[in-house]
Amino acid sequence: MRFSTSVLLSIFVALTSALPIIEARDETNATLPTVKIYGTGGTIASKGSTAATTAGYQVGLTVDDLIDAVPSLSDVANLEYLQISNIGSNSLNYTHLIPLHHNISQDFENGLIDGAVVTHGTDTLEETAFFLDMTIKSEKPICMVGAMRPSTATSADGPMNLYQAVSIAGSSKSEGRGTMITMNDRIASAMYTTKMNANSVDTFKADEQGYLGHFFNDNIEFYYPPARAYGYQYFDISNVTDASEIPEVIILYSYQGLNPELAVQAVKELGAKGLVLAGSGAGSWTNSGEITNEELIDKYDLPIVYSRRTPDGSVPTDDVPSYGIASGYLNPQKARILLQLCLYSGYSIDQIREVFATSYGG
Ligand SMILES: *[C@@H]1O[C@H](CO)[C@@H](O)[C@H](O)[C@H]1NC(C)=O
Ligand SMILES: *[C@@H]1O[C@H](CO)[C@@H](O)[C@H](O)[C@H]1NC(C)=O
Ligand SMILES: *[C@@H]1O[C@H](CO)[C@@H](O)[C@H](O)[C@H]1NC(C)=O
Ligand SMILES: *[C@@H]1O[C@H](CO)[C@@H](O)[C@H](O)[C@H]1NC(C)=O
């Protein structure tokens, strides 16, 4: 009696069903890469009430629905999927990011997948991208993808973005480039890309550092060989089991007449273990705020990172008081994650200053 491969496979699956089986959609095509899609929610998984609705819509599709909406996906990769959450990215936090990290990390280590795609709301997509970039040690590509228009809108951008992300995550050309943000035909590095427009489809920009490549007519075209940005470094968080193990860091925003007590309250009452300042210009804080900052650092041995409220550019060491830490090119939301990872790793203020300094030229 002869069994076909698929019969043997189902017997194997039945025998091993006590083990966690990765969900796969179709029969495996050995010539194609295997890409796993991790669904977190967001506009890409949303439905509006009419075809013109592009605001005020609800998250409602699962990663399974998304795959069904793009049948050509099965031509570019063997697909697996896992739903991590199904919420807007404004409500994501380490409670979701830690399991997301551990799943991708273990799937890479087990050698079962060639690339990862994370479907995500666009609001905080750059934060998850930066976090995964700094904490997953692998040459395999991770593509973050979202949409600005819900699935029900005319010219919804989600299906094409998802198709491109799966293609890029499955390509050997994408190896060694870390976590990427792949939307709107552009391939960009998690390190510097940021959401620039609250509404427009073309919102992710890396104006100063530039893009890594372009998706054009089903071709993946990179401009440079694989490389990691200055400032990239790996933090091992494989032992983290609970979100509360990641130290609290609070971001304060600069404005005329800033109340310096905000910094005191963040530390004393909210228990911040570090602060990131979205300062004006190249990271300036107010004169009275500086007196408070220096006192806080003296009293609590607290790292304070000076970043900027300006959308682009660098906060250099020269512009920051000697007790502070300059964020370089990192915006406040990315500087916060880097500072949290440094604090989790037990780095001193001087070590943290060195970590940030590598982001402006090694
Ligand atoms: C496997 O994928 C390749 C590349 O897309 C395609 O040419 C081939 O027909 C597929 N094989 C099967 C059995 O579907
Ligand atoms: C993170 O999200 C979870 C689940 O949505 C929520 O219970 C928790 O309070 C949130 N944590 C923080 C720090 O916001
Ligand atoms: C993987 O994700 C699932 C779904 O969120 C979660 O239940 C599981 O604990 C995660 N695995 C790890 C190792 O964190
Ligand atoms: C993780 O925990 C194990 C066991 O306690 C320990 O040997 C290892 O050094 C820890 N790794 C990190 C990066 O903290």
From TrEMBL:
Every Asparaginase/glutaminase C-terminal domain range: 249-356
Ligand binding (substrate): 89, 122-123
Catalytic activity: L-asparagine + H2O = L-aspartate + NH4(+)
InterPro entries from the UniProt entry: AsnASE_II (IPR004550), Asp/glu_Ase-like_sf (IPR036152), Asparaginase/glutaminase-like (IPR006034), Asparaginase/glutaminase_AS1 (IPR020827), Asparaginase/glutaminase_AS2 (IPR027475), Asparaginase_C (IPR040919), L-asparaginase_C (IPR027473), L-asparaginase_N (IPR027474)
Residue ranges constituting the L-asparaginase N-terminal domain according to the UniProt record: 35-227
EC numbers on record: 3.5.1.1
PROSITE patterns: ASN_GLN_ASE_1, ASN_GLN_ASE_2, ASN_GLN_ASE_3
One of the protein's GO biological processes: L-asparagine catabolic process
Top-tier EC class: hydrolase
Family: Belongs to the asparaginase 1 family.
Protein name: asparaginase
